[in-house]
Specification:
By secondary structure, the protein is α+β, with helices and mostly antiparallel strands. Helix content is 18%, strand content 20%. Pfam families: PAS_5.
Length: 267
């Protein structure tokens, strides 16, 4: 109902605006509303314009505990705050609970392990625009030589991607990788400064093993890898796109670093 009061009722604006189940008595008194389990009678309205009745929107003490609607300045998505504690609804007596049987083993109450982090190859054409822009820039530089050099990657050509980029360098013969540079969006997800720290020191073991395997595959093949990552602890329960681009230190040399883009929220 778009207006503050019902045309056939003298109920206050709060009672009419809440679109819950309600019953109207013969004398046009609103007597029952199920929203938030608040019940009562409303007979207080004296005007068709609620602005003349109250500045607090609620005109009826029976419905005062109800939060205001969002369009009137309230936040109905939050539970209502009651001035006085409300008595819980009466419930029939329950039979005495039987003593619980002892657990068979500690593993019975152990929390379920999170799903393993995994990644699947993904077509670059199916990725967000930032990924495609970065990939196109890498291809343009690659036209000049077998592999782009690290200093040839121009951040000005991909401003929207910088916050999610990191430059990874292998250590210990490729057994681990170290962050040589990292954007702020990734550092926020990891909760600390990461430059000069290794993957195994910053990431959970299973997620680190997955990422190290993909970094090594990109470095050894000298080919870019576009992946759809699932269940990474950095973004639990969701997925994100990851683009790995090999870079060289000298012209004509092998890949020695990996430029990684991880499409996580933030910027």
């Amino acid at each position: 109902m778009s207006h503050a009061f019902a045309k056939d009722s003298r109920a206050c604006a709060a009672c009419i605006s809440w679109g819950a189940e309600r019953a109207l008595s013969d004398d046009h008194t609103l007597v029952y509303v199920t929203r938030y389990s608040v019940e009562g009678e409303c007979r207080t309205a004296s005007s068709q314009d609620y602005r003349k009745v109250t500045k607090a929107y609620h005109t009826c003490p029976a419905w005062a505990p109800l939060p205001m609607l969002k369009k009137h300045g309230g936040r109905p998505d939050r539970p209502p705050t009651f001035a006085t504690p409300m008595a819980p609804p009466a419930s029939p007596p329950q039979p005495a609970a039987k003593p619980a049987a002892p657990a068979s083993s500690p593993s019975a109450v152990a929390e379920a392990e999170p799903p393993p982090c995994r990644a699947d190859l993904l077509d670059v054409d199916k990725t967000p625009p930032q990924v495609r822009v970065l990939y196109a820039h890498w291809l343009r530089v690659k036209r000049k030589r077998p592999l782009p050099l690290a200093h040839e990657i121009d951040p000005a050509q991909m401003r929207e991607s910088v916050a999610r980029l990191c430059l990874m360098e292998p250590v210990a013969g490729g057994a681990d990788f170290v962050y040589r540079a990292c954007g702020r969006a990734l550092q926020r997800r990891l909760g600390r400064r990461v430059v000069t720290h290794s993957v195994t020191a910053l990431h959970p073991a299973q997620a680190a093993a997955r990422w190290l395997a993909d970094l090594r595959a990109c470095l050894e093949s000298g080919e870019p890898r576009c992946l759809l990552v699932r269940d990474d602890p950095m973004l639990p329960g969701t997925r994100f796109v990851e683009l790995l681009l090999p870079l060289a230190d000298v012209e004509g040399g092998p890949a020695t670093r990996v430029l990684a883009y991880r499409h996580v929220p933030g910027g």
